[in-house]
Amino acid sequence: MVRPSIATCEPSTRPCLATRGSLPRSRTCASLLFLCLLLGLTVFCSDANPCDSKLPLLPSSMRAFFLLECNITLTDLPDKTMEAKCLQSMFELIDSGFFNETKIQEIAKGATEINVPIYRANRKLVATKNGGLENPSPLVFNPSWNREVRRVQGKRFKYPSASGVQLLRDEEDIAFMSVLELGELIKTRQVTSEELVRIYLKQLKRYNHVLEAVVTYTEELAYKQAKEADDLLSQGTYLGPLHGIPYGLKDTITVPRYRTTWGSTSFKDQVLDIEAWVYKRLKASGAVLVAKLVAGSMAYDDIWFGGRTRNPWNIEEFTTGSSAGPAASTSAGMVPFAIGSETAGSITNPAARCGVTALRPTFGSVGRTGVMSISESLDKLGPFCRTAADCAVILDAIKGKDPNDLSSREIAFEDPFSVDITKLTVGYTKDADMKVVEVLGSKGVIMVPFELNYTVESVQGILNFTMDVDMLAHFDEWQRTGQDDLYEAQDQWPVELRRARVVTAVDYIQAQRARGKLIREVEKSFTVDAFVGNVTDWERICMGNLVGLPVLVIPTGFKNITDPPTNSCRRRTTINAGIYAPPERDHIVSKSSRIYVLYVAQ
């Protein structure tokens, strides 16, 4: 039977292909057909489902181009051999041109009859909600090099004493005190939590119009939590160094009754009734939430639906991202500490740009329930602070097994304040800040030249495959419904996630196998207790995140900006260093950084 509106179909079940007269179809036409197959938009013919009943399922723009490019007319369909040859060109684009004609026919038929229904069933089952807050992947990454199962000691860190600290007169000076100093002021009742909340809310509102670092002020909640902290202290209950201390959360972290926007226009009014695990831990420690801080849109960079976050040291410069708000707010004295996250550079880059101390801990140290997910095997939460000691205090409060995060673990970190530095061997790379090397060496640390060697050349590609495919799984519906057209920076997630759509499962798993090789080679090459090196090098960022290495970013100085507008310009570029350690050795980076900071402060 002839179908005059579209094409002629044989009474058989197979992909519907058409001819350009008597000539072979173009590579573009074949590519379109195969792309439709990958996207679940295959044109399919059978007696019950003729071609013209399926073609309208294509997007209108693709349908028009399909008809024009393939020049579909009232002609007979090609045989199966021709179909296979036409599809061959598209298989070559994904480096799979080794299939013969028989196998290509089998793949086309199987993908249509088996794969596409499974794609749709899985999407319906687990992918109708964006953000990856539910149905986490069981593909759990464990960066530990210790093959032995060990019991975890519940011993807490012995914090350094801040005794003798006095309340400063100027509120601006108070705002730049460390967590340990503020904790001592509260413990000795020189200041109340409510007074600190008032000071930091004032700072936030004073500078946010310039820095664009705050999404939501949690003022009502802050005063409520501060009053509870003050009441507990008056009753003789002290919860520790975070008791009554204000802080901020990156706006990828959920807090009930408040927006969690992920920095995105698509989700700017989103309120999730989920209490994030890290928020629970901080609340139990007595900390007081004063603001939800900017995350670059869907945790990509420093651009978000309300603007672009700026560097307090140079407001003509942006923070980078995606933990833009935590970095800028801590740097500007708007909060004493903040929690950010990293998949690939989102803690290290903004911390370095804004000149603050920040810790990207060992993967799995901190539970991620209630946090927007990019990649289950890469995402990490960590603190932005004024000092290395503060970072250790915060990590001690938030680390531990989250029962709803399969990748989180109880890790027995040693007390960084009790490490014998004279027994440490610390390497330094060619790009290390030699001032840090000299300071550590002068305090008794054994310093040696060092390079981390591995043969895997595709480190950056492995990270991109892992991050982008995982991210697309969490935002599949967002892309399918065209919300990516509303994204704030079209050259970021939209482009990357469209490319991720055609990464095959086999290639994704092969990337993970290559990642395993990288991990083994880095473990073998890591012959020192820690090493000092550049913290913003992209290759090192990718390697460190794939392997799960902890790193602590420390500011080491400043330099003048290039071409200042006036001779009296106070804008500066920060100088930073990173101290890296093997997984589960976070205490070493904290101790090494603290030695440097204490020496410089003398």
Automatic annotation (TrEMBL):
Assigned keywords, A-Z: Signal
Signal peptide: 1-48
Record Pfam families: Amidase
Example of a GO MF term: glutaminyl-tRNA synthase (glutamine-hydrolyzing) activity
Taxonomic superkingdom: Eukaryota
InterPro entries found in the cross-reference section: Amidase (IPR000120), Amidase_dom (IPR023631)
Annotated ranges, domain Amidase: 195-460
PANTHER family reported in the protein's UniProt record: AMIDASE FAMILY PROTEIN (PTHR11895:SF73), TRANSAMIDASE (PTHR11895)
Record protein name field: Amidase signature (AS) superfamily
